[in-house]
Design goal:
It is a single chain. This protein is mainly β. Strand 5 and strand 6 form a beta hairpin. A six-stranded antiparallel barrel has the order 1-2-3-6-5-4. Helices cover 8% and strands 33% of the residues.
């Protein structure tokens, strides 16, 4: 079994045909995505995907793939996490902008380690403003 769901036809699959939803964990890490200026907050993370939240609009396109970087904060002991993600959905509200992202490729095992860290430390710590990541 692959760590990531297969990208092929994910948008076309019926909901009942997809793998069961992986457990989600709260996170307050910073995230950067190519195609989006500045940093956003990462929240609601699992080993297969997560939600990105920002106060500014991002022109990220559903179905398109982007490179992203997660800065989990010093308390985790992890370096920057780099992955390839696919935009699944975009939701814009008055006070926030959210994007659902599916992880399609990870360049190291830090994503798994970060989710494992959040399993053990369920109360996330807000990331340090002056991070050395």
């Amino acid at each position: 079994m692959s760590f990531f769901r297969k990208k092929e036809n994910v948008l076309k699959d019926k909901e009942e045909d997809l793998a069961p939803r992986a457990p989600r964990y709260d996170s307050f890490a910073f995230i950067e995505v190519n195609g989006f200026e500045g940093r956003a907050l990462l929240k609601n993370i699992s080993t297969t995907g997560f939600c990105m939240q920002s106060k500014t609009y991002a022109s990220l396109i559903p179905g398109k793939t982007y490179t992203m970087y997660i800065f989990p904060g010093k308390s985790t002991g992890l370096d920057t996490i780099e992955s390839e993600v696919e935009v699944r959905w975009v939701r814009s509200e008055v006070s926030k902008f959210e994007v659902g992202l599916l992880i399609t490729k990870s360049f190291n095992r830090n994503m798994e380690k970060y989710v494992d860290y959040l399993k053990v430390h369920p109360d996330p710590v807000y990331p340090e403003k002056a991070s050395n990541n």
